Every structure is written in C-alpha cells, then in structure tokens.
TrEMBL record:
Taxonomic lineage from the root: Eukaryota, Fungi, Dikarya, Basidiomycota, Agaricomycotina
Gene source species: Hydnomerulius pinastri MD-312
Designated name of the protein: Fe2OG dioxygenase domain-containing protein
Domain of life: Eukaryota
C-alpha cells in the first residue's frame, strides 16, 4: 500500500539496546508509536542524558539516525511499538 514512510517495523515486548537507525534519513524525523496495555516503558535519549515516559498512546518524532536511543526493561504490561 502507498506510504510516506520508507519502512515500518513492529516491535513487541522487546527491549531495545542503545542504537542509531542506520536505515533512516539524517535530515528527517522518524515516528515512533507506543501502544500496548498497562506498560511503564521509558525511552532513553542517550545523547541528551534524558529518559521520557513511553507509555501506551505516546507518539515520538526523533532523528533516529542522529540520536542514540534505547528502551530498557519495563516492569509490567505488554509493549508494542510501530516505528
């Protein structure tokens, strides 16, 4: 189907080690959509030494090729991310 995105990943109940998205464009933003049920995951933005709430319903735009980011183990719930 037609999409303005170059690719789509679905991540279910997985931690995400610190990384940069090599397949992304450095000049564009990537959209991350956190869904699931009752989870308390946090998105770590390593270059800013920041950690933000990444619960169900959270949308994040970031330059994934430029910024290192990760998601550590969360304590409860089911986590699904569409990236």
């Amino acid at each position: 189907w037609p999409s303005l995105f170059s690719g789509i990943d679905i991540i279910a109940n997985r931690i995400t080690p610190r990384h940069q998205d090599q397949g992304s464009c450095a000049e564009a933003y990537d959209l991350l959509v956190s869904i699931g049920e009752g989870h308390d995951a946090r998105l770590d933005l390593c270059d800013f030494k920041a950690s933000i709430g990444y619960g169900p319903g959270t949308l994040v735009f970031l330059t994934g090729r430029v910024l290192r980011h990760s998601v550590a183990k969360w304590s409860r719930g089911e986590r699904i991310v569409v990236a």
